[in-house]
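Operator note (shift B, R.M.): manual run for BnaC06g41160D protein requested after the automated queue skipped it. Running by hand, logging everything below so the morning shift can see what happened. Input copied straight from the record, untouched. If output looks odd, do not overwrite the archive copy; leave it for review.
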Amino acid sequence: MYVRFPSPEIEAIEEEIELFRALSDSKIGKLTLARLLIAKATVSENDVKGVVHYEEILELYNDLMALDSSHYHYYKDEHSVALLRKRYEKFCMSAAEQLIAISDSLCLEVAVCPNVTMSFTQLKDWRQCNSSLA
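Run finished. Output pasted below as returned.
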C-alpha cells in the first residue's frame, strides 16, 4: 500500500486555517475559519482522508448566531449543513465498516460454495478497495 501526501491545495488551506485561528475572536475571523474548515473537508474527500473538525465548525456557527443576530438565519442554515455533513460522514463510515465485515464473510462463502460466480481476484480487488476506507 502506498502513502498519499496532502495536495498543495490542502496545505494552503491548512496554512490559512492556522492564520485565522488567531482571529477567531472576531465575527469575520470565526466565519472565515468555519468556511476554511469546511473547504478543507470538501477537498480532503477527494484527496486524503483527514480529520474533519465538525465540532469546531458547529461551535463557530453557534458563536456567530449569538454574536450577530441580524444574520442569525444564515448562520443557522450553515450550522445545519455542517451537522448534516457530520451525520452523513458518520453513516458512511459505519456503512464502510459493515462492507468490510461482509467482505470477510464473502471470502468464506467463495471458499465453501463453488457456485459463486465472483472470482478470487475480483474479490481481492474489491476487498483492497474497501479496506482503504477503514
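Quick read of the result: The radius of gyration is 21 Å. The chain is about 75% helix and 0% strand.
Leaving this for review. - R.M.
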